[in-house]
Amino acid sequence: MKRLELKFLNExxxxxxxxxxxxxxxxxxxxxxxxxxxxITQNAFTSSGGDLLQKHSARVVERNVVDVELA
Length: 71
Description:
71 residues; flat; alpha+beta; 18% helix; 1 helix; four-stranded antiparallel sheet
């Protein structure tokens, strides 16, 4: 499963990550940048370390899980 991770810096300077499952691909960097700006402007989320102050990064993460059958 793929996940889009949006990473922000909060008032304490710590990285806060919000994840979105099954992002539309290819991911549009302009749309992601705009959405992250809007999240900060609207103060849409907060964290235990205070408000989100700036964008840190964004990335798409893919996780593959393979079950191991036990005898």
